[in-house]
Specification:
CATH class of the largest domain: Alpha Beta
Bound molecules: oxa(dethia)-CoA
Strand order of the largest sheet: 1-7-6-4-5
Number of strands: 15
CATH superfamily of the largest domain: Thiolase/Chalcone synthase
Distance between the termini: 18 Å
CATH topology of the largest domain: Peroxisomal Thiolase, Chain A, domain 1
Shape: globular
Helix content: 25-40%
Number of domains: 2
Radius of gyration: 18 Å
Structural class: alpha+beta
Strand content: 25-35%
Order of helices and strands: EEHHEHEHEHEHEEEEEEHEHHHEE
Number of helices: 10
Largest sheet: 5 strands, mixed
Length: 322
């Protein structure tokens, strides 16, 4: 039986970190470091320079993941990029990344649009391709330039997000690997987090900025992150006590703490990067994973529970033996 294992991780953050104080001063926001830290846990974020696109961030993260996996671009036969801030309407950011990486062997390449759940969705999709036997080695990337879709006059959203990318190489293996995954959506909640605009006839129709009902999103996130964690743990026949690291989507430290508490997982076992990165949407889970791998917290053989929740609404989880 074919299984899927993570053979390498990588990540990339653009430029120097921007502190809450510098962001507030630079954008003349009616906010404070105290409010942002107390309500969200965010202390800084990285913002891509003008002209730097999601595929550029994805490229750096992917090169690092490929190096960690000990393989080259042409060893890949599948490239999936999770993003809500693609370079273009089309072609996909995944095909642009494929070209920048120098993959010339005709690997399949496509984007996944599931907002902050995108990376977990993409992992789940790649796992199914690999376990089916159709593909052997996949690059799965979460990459975002959310700074491009923020309304910098809306203090309720613009302080929350950052730019970045994270990547993993997944490959066929004889031992598991990815133990269980689940992904879900409920489109009836589309209105609580969206960018409700479209390009039409050479202009933007509607609103091109991110809009969010923060409290509704908060409640929804805590509920489904706990539910889907139980779903994958049950599917793998594992108790939460066997999870070495909980690596959830990084939106708000209070959501992470509440989720860990609901799962009876000590918060010390939760990888928390939201303070340094802000909310990087589809990039947040692979960024957190790579950081914990590179600083030595995550090691081979450990059980990791990755989780995402975001606009749509979408949510999902992947339980894996690293
Ligand atoms: O990645 C997708 C998932 N996204 C999330 O998970 C985000 C989930 N939601 C949240 O993280 C929180 O709801 C927020 C951080 C967005 C907001 O925190 P909150 O504790 O729910 O605050 P609130 O929206 O109830 O606002 C409280 C007050 C309001 O003032 P009044 O009406 O009480 O006078 C806001 O106007 O805080 C005010 N406020 C701010 N004050 C200073 C909102 N944003 C700011 C700000 N600085 N940046």
């Amino acid at each position: 039986m074919t299984h899927t294992r993570v053979s390498g991780t990588g990540s990339y953050l653009p430029g120097e970190p921007i502190s809450n104080a510098d962001l507030i001063a630079g954008r003349a926001l009616d906010s404070s470091d105290e409010w942002i830290v107390e309500r969200t846990g965010i202390r800084q974020r990285h913002l891509a320079a003008p002209g730097v696109a999601s595929s550029d961030l994805a490229l750096e993260a992917s090169r690092r993941a490929l190096q960690a996996a000990g393989c080259e671009a042409n060893d890949l036969d599948l490239i999936i990029v999770a993003t809500s801030t693609p370079d273009f309407v089309f072609p996909s950011t995944a095909t642009l990344l494929q070209h920048k990486l120098g993959n010339t062997n005709g690997a399949a390449a496509f984007d996944v649009q599931a907002v902050c759940s995108g990376f977990v969705y993409a992992m789940t999709i790649a796992d199914k391709f690999i376990r089916s036997g159709s593909h052997k080695r996949a690059l799965v990337v979460g990459a975002e330039v959310f700074s491009r879709i923020l309304d910098w006059t809306d203090r309720g959203t613009c302080v929350l997000f950052g730019d970045g990318a994270g990547a993993v190489v997944l490959e066929a293996a004889s031992e598991p690997g990815l133990l269980a995954s689940a992904f879900h959506a409920d489109g009836s909640h589309h209105g609580i987090l969206s960018v409700p605009g479209q390009v039409c006839g050479g202009t933007v129709i509607g609103d091109p900025f991110l809009r969010m009902d923060g409290q509704a999103v908060f409640k929804f996130a805590v509920r489904v992150l706990a539910e889907v964690a139980h779903e994958v743990l049950d599917a793998a026949g594992m108790g939460a006590d066997r999870v070495d690291w909980l690596i959830p989507h990084q939106a708000n430290v209070r959501i992470l703490q509440a989720t860990a508490k609901k799962l009876h997982i000590p918060v010390e076992k939760c990888v928390i990067t939201v303070a340094q990165h802000g909310n990087t949407s589809a990039a947040s889970v692979p960024l957190a994973l790579d950081e914990a791998v590179r600083d030595g917290r995550v090691s081979r053989g450990q059980h990791l529970l990755l989780e995402g929740v975001g606009g749509g609404f979408t949510w999902g989880a992947t339980l894996l033996k690293f």
